[in-house]
Amino acid sequence: MNINFADIALTRFLRIRRLISDPVVTVTPEVEQEPPFFTVWRPKGGDPVRKHFERASAEYEAERVARLRPESDVFVMAPTSRVRTRHAEREDYARAHSAECMCSRFE
Description:
two-stranded antiparallel sheet; alpha+beta
């Protein structure tokens, strides 16, 4: 098996360069402030389903859940940052094929 490490390195470099120069993803600037919300999470439970806008409310909920599930870890968590994309990528298959292609008939 012949592995071309130069091609692998070039591919990774180009991918990283595209990610760095792509203005699609924005990251909020670091700000010293109270988190916008808190959530309660238990590793052996489901996903967090509710935002708590006050720390006391989240801690009360964490205590309630911990009483219902003894010997289970319950965490009060707050977001540290946010990442948002400006647009989604779309690949249009109908334009990639000719008019005689079967897939264009089901639009």
